[in-house]
Amino acid sequence: MPPAKKVTPTPATKSTAEKVVPIKSTTKPKPFKVPKHLADCADMLYEKREERLQVQKVVDALAKEEGVLREHIIANLPKSNASGISGKVATARIETKMIPQVEDREALQAYIKKTGRFDLLQGRLSESAVLEMWADNKKVPGVVSFTAVKVSCTKK
Fold first, then answer.
1. Which residue among 16, 80, 96, 110 is the one 20 to 30 A from 29 at the CA level?
2. How far is Cα 41 from Cα 26, in angstroms, rounded to an integer?
3. pLDDT (tens digit, 9 = 90+) per residue, 7-60?
4. pLDDT at 94
5. Measuring CA to CA, how many Å separate 8 from each of 5, 12, 55, 61?
6. 2 with 113: CB under 8 angstroms?
7. Which residue ranges make up each domain of the chain?
8. Which helix (H) or strand (E) holds 141?
9. Is 126 helix (H, G, I), strand (E, B) or coil?
10. What percent of the residues of the chain are helix, what percent strand, and what percent coil, each to the nearest 5?
11. Greatest CA separation found in the chain?
12. In which element (H, E) is residue 86 found?
């Protein structure tokens, strides 16, 4: 009977970051070359998007782990009567910031209309509201349209 192979168990707490090999290269990356034929471009576009989506899954998992750690520090650090904690490579501190939040939309709109303080708003249109008005053949003063061009790429 052959001797049993020694198996090293993987810790259950192994993070996503430990599974990822860091990309550190001392050589200059090769310049990206666009294929000559459009059919090859379509195939490469699909492959690059799939590659990006795979990498994005790893990035999302890392971001989730970061969030869990942040929440843990926020939940536990104030109990220790300290404003920060230092490890071997980093220091984490609890910081606070005032963030405005609309509680009464009608009151805010009335205030802006009365005072002219449009700087309280961000300058972004509601695309759906404008498209709805245009569908009803109504004009929106000061708003024009432009045609956005995009590529749809799907697997055969």
1. 16
2. 29
3. 444 444 555 555 655 666 677 888 989 999 999 999 999 999 999 999 999 999
4. 87
5. 10, 12, 28, 25
6. no
7. 33-93
8. none
9. coil
10. 45, 5, 50
11. 90
12. strand 84-86
**Phi/psi of residue 115, each to 5°?**
-95, -15
Q: 108: Cβ–Cβ under 8 A, 6 or more apart, which residues?
A: 102, 120
Residue position matching structure tokens 């709805």:
132
Closest to 42 (Cα-Cα) out of 51, 34, 30, 31: 34
Give the model's pLDDT for residue 96: 86
Tokens of 66: 């970061």
How many other C-beta atoms can be found within 10 angstroms of the C-beta atom of residue 104?
9
**Residue 150: which H helix or E strand, with range?**
none
